[in-house]
Specification:
It contains nine helices and six strands, in the order E-H-E-E-H-E-H-E-H-H-H-E-H-H-H. It is of the alpha+beta class.
């Protein structure tokens, strides 16, 4: 499973304005931002943006100035792949090291929605051991119990991170992962596709 929440897209008007700096063509800009902060990219700006995006990463630098912040809850096996995209991204995670013993372990802490019954039975056994070791640690603070938890913890354990990235990061992720065999990546890419002007800026230029 994967969950994207509290999504916020920022700095789009500034990025579009800066897009025209190289040609000093600001007077041609037709992008508007309403009083309540909603940005509408005009047809002239959108046409130029699409040409620059299709021309390559050196020409579409303005995408790096469209920022996105969001909370992502996903299993550790997905975060391991997400960490491939380190350039231009920042993530603050809930601490496994410091906070994992503060609540009872249960199935809802793990991504197990596609497990077979046999795998679920195995996971339930692991959860039982994790909870027993957690209780021992809470009562005694024994390092051995804490080490058992950390080293036994499955990669299906869900972790929350608050992430900041930009449209260039998302463009690369989308095109590399939209058809990935992990359902979490496909869900992630569908959410990204629905961000303001993401389809127009980061998908359509490569399909037309």
């Amino acid at each position: 499973m994967i969950k994207l929440e509290k999504i916020k897209v920022m700095n789009m008007p500034t990025a579009i304005r800066g897009m025209r700096n190289s040609m000093n063509s600001w007077e041609l800009s037709d992008t508007k931002t309403s009083r309540d902060g909603v940005t509408t990219i005009g047809p002239k700006d959108l046409a130029l943006a699409r040409r620059l995006v299709k021309a390559g990463s050196d020409e579409r630098k303005f995408l790096r100035q469209i920022f996105v912040s969001l909370d992502i809850t996903a299993p550790l096996y997905w975060w391991k792949e997400f960490d491939t995209y380190k350039v231009g991204t920042v993530a603050n995670s809930c601490s496994t090291m410091h906070k994992i013993t503060e609540k009872q372990f249960s199935r809802k802490d793990f991504s197990c929605d596609r497990m077979t019954p046999a795998a679920l039975a195995c996971l339930d056994g692991v959860i039982s051991v994790l909870e027993e070791r957690r209780q021992v640690f809470v009562e005694t603070k024994a390092p051995a119990a804490w080490n058992d938890i950390i080293q036994l913890l499955p990669s299906s354990y869900n972790q929350l991170r608050t992430v900041t990235l930009n449209y260039e990061n998302l463009l690369n992720m989308y095109h590399a992962r939209k058809n990935h065999k992990l359902q979490e990546w496909r869900t992630y890419c569908l959410e990204v596709y629905c961000l303001p002007y993401f389809r127009e800026l980061c998908v359509d230029p490569f399909e037309n």
